Description:
The protein has strands spanning 9-11, 30-34, 53-57, 65-68, 81-89, 94-102, 109-115, 122-129, 135-143, 152-159. The chain is mainly beta. It is globular and about 45 Å long. The mean pLDDT is 86. Pfam families: MAM.
Amino acid sequence: CFNSGSSCEKxxxxxxxCKALHELNLQPGWIRRNGQSGMGPPYSDHNGNDSAYFxxxxxxxxxxxxxxxxxxxxxxxxxxxxxxxxxxxxxxxGTLMVGLQKHxxxxxxxxxxxxxxxxxxxxxxTITVNxxxxxxxxxxxxxxTQRQGETVAIDDITFSEGC
Length: 163
């Protein structure tokens, strides 16, 4: 994954979802597609490959769509959970948020958020999660306008050993 010595889970969406993301956790608002799908941007994955797969918001989507990980165990001092992912947000109205849901809490705590602006390109981000209890990580994407080409996409999510 990052180096040969670390065991980690990588979701590149090439064949399906990885263990950390179950099909059940993929709400209908997200679709697995590639740049050749005829659905507008992005036209390639973060490596510039137009036949490689990623997730993007479905054009029919009217509100936010969430993607939940499976349940992770509490972190210890030596192993923090690092999640690295690539994201793509259209210029005007896209927003991507990452939240943390601890098992003792109903509410989701937002730990990272980015919204439109002059993006329209793939960017990478790494977040570190520290939790003393079991938790799930939730990615939510939304677009405010239903204009052509307005979308949020996500690719290559990797979860470090501590997750």
